[in-house]
Amino acid sequence: MAKNNRIQMFPHEWRASTTLSGVYALRMLGMFLVLPVLAVYAAGLPGAENNKALIGLAMGVYGLTQALLQLPLGMASDRFGRKKVIYFGLIVFAAGSFLAAAADSLAMLVIARALQGAGAVSAAVTALLADLTRNEVRTRAMSMIGLSIGLTFSVSLVAAPVMADWIGVNGLFALTGVLTLISIAVVAWLTPNPQDSKLHEDAQAQPARMREVLKDRQLLRLDLGIFILHASQMALFTALPFAMNQLGLEKIQHWKVYLPATITGLVVMVPLIIIGETRNKLKQVFVSGIVCIALAQIGLLFGLDSVWLITAYLTVYFIGFNVLEASLPSMVSKIAPSDLKGTAMGVYNTMQSVGLFVGGICGGILFQHYGFNGVFAFCSGLMLLWLAVAVCAPAPKPVKNLMYPVPPQWAGRADALYRALSAVAGIESIAFSQDRQTVYIKALQKGFDLAAAEKIISGD
């Protein structure tokens, strides 16, 4: 087989990966850029007097509408076309951003945030990227999206307080709206048009097979984990900015806390993930990430006495958060059946969005009635629950996922190809796409005879 084709991206694949990563990151920018400053801003709007619960709704309602619509819009892209659905979603997102910029009351801001979340194009973007990339490079293309999201999150936390001082939070929303309109032009003129759109089981959800994913206890544990991770994150940011304000750290200076915490988290995360993946220590690294966040939340529960303490706790928090954000999708990929990976990730992403909503609502209500202690006790309790579940869960097998187009000599002979591959050492499972044009292999990272498998598939 032509190994160099699997290593090198074609120019149109590179263009698709970079432009769609930007679009995907921009969707996240709508949440991340205002995350550190939104609660304080919302508290100053008419209708916010003694109504922290509504502030929490403004923080989290974005996640609710996103959770409700991201899978339906992904399915709509199968019927009406990828780019048409992406244009529609981005227009809705831009409208929500401009409405948020113009919001003169907390209730109006809640509506605007809900509208932003309704522009849920992530599933359609993923489907378009799958259409535009070969099996051999698709994992790399998808990882570019993950990297863009991680960078967007880190940059937003640091930049948002400073930018909000320059142009205001309403200016941040307006900027997001303008960038969204620009991204529509990018998709129209720079992102290639797919020659053929079809279902890609490795990247897209299959509603008819959703029940198979929901019956898998290992996957459900990971879905619970991403729910808790983002619920506790959103709850944290409903209260933490107010704590720093009370200590005399103005909003524009919050970057001084976020910058060292996020950079340290990113730097420490990289070697930990490498150790987890290459030395079969992924569960240990994963559990250590949960421990880091639990310790940080417990620390915030008992120690909001100084900016230095908050900085130290957030540094520990972001080490854990970055480890978990990187390791959770990897674990879903390892555990999910190869032909259900897209469905498993669809459920996973939905639970992430639901977590954002629940965290905003619970954080606002608890902050209103029980103050900082109520919020951080809630976050600590969630993390300790997750820790107990994770410790008892079995470690995922050290496997990797491979995809190959079925060559002409095997066309119509899927059963024969299955039997031939089953004899190869190190293969854990074999599955085929619905059209039988792609074979998915889940194989052990060590002990897998790659050369033998490729020889069989190529027919040499």
From TrEMBL:
<feature type="transmembrane region" description="Helical">
    <location>
        <begin position="141"/>
        <end position="160"/>
    </location>
</feature>
<protein>
    <submittedName>
        <fullName>MFS transporter</fullName>
    </submittedName>
</protein>
<feature type="transmembrane region" description="Helical">
    <location>
        <begin position="255"/>
        <end position="275"/>
    </location>
</feature>
<dbReference type="InterPro" id="IPR005829">
    <property type="entry name" value="Sugar_transporter_CS"/>
</dbReference>
<keyword id="KW-0813">Transport</keyword>
<keyword id="KW-1003">Cell membrane</keyword>
<dbReference type="InterPro" id="IPR011701">
    <property type="entry name" value="MFS"/>
</dbReference>
<feature type="transmembrane region" description="Helical">
    <location>
        <begin position="373"/>
        <end position="393"/>
    </location>
</feature>
<dbReference type="InterPro" id="IPR050171">
    <property type="entry name" value="MFS_Transporters"/>
</dbReference>
<feature type="transmembrane region" description="Helical">
    <location>
        <begin position="306"/>
        <end position="324"/>
    </location>
</feature>
<feature type="transmembrane region" description="Helical">
    <location>
        <begin position="53"/>
        <end position="73"/>
    </location>
</feature>
<dbReference type="GO" id="GO:0005886">
    <property type="term" value="C:plasma membrane"/>
</dbReference>
<feature type="transmembrane region" description="Helical">
    <location>
        <begin position="21"/>
        <end position="41"/>
    </location>
</feature>
<feature type="transmembrane region" description="Helical">
    <location>
        <begin position="345"/>
        <end position="367"/>
    </location>
</feature>
<feature type="transmembrane region" description="Helical">
    <location>
        <begin position="219"/>
        <end position="243"/>
    </location>
</feature>
<keyword id="KW-1133">Transmembrane helix</keyword>
<keyword id="KW-0472">Membrane</keyword>
<dbReference type="GO" id="GO:0022857">
    <property type="term" value="F:transmembrane transporter activity"/>
</dbReference>
<feature type="transmembrane region" description="Helical">
    <location>
        <begin position="85"/>
        <end position="103"/>
    </location>
</feature>
<feature type="transmembrane region" description="Helical">
    <location>
        <begin position="282"/>
        <end position="300"/>
    </location>
</feature>
<dbReference type="Pfam" id="PF07690">
    <property type="entry name" value="MFS_1"/>
</dbReference>
<feature type="domain" description="Major facilitator superfamily (MFS) profile">
    <location>
        <begin position="16"/>
        <end position="398"/>
    </location>
</feature>
<feature type="transmembrane region" description="Helical">
    <location>
        <begin position="166"/>
        <end position="190"/>
    </location>
</feature>
<dbReference type="InterPro" id="IPR020846">
    <property type="entry name" value="MFS_dom"/>
</dbReference>
<keyword id="KW-0812">Transmembrane</keyword>
<feature type="transmembrane region" description="Helical">
    <location>
        <begin position="109"/>
        <end position="129"/>
    </location>
</feature>
<dbReference type="InterPro" id="IPR036259">
    <property type="entry name" value="MFS_trans_sf"/>
</dbReference>
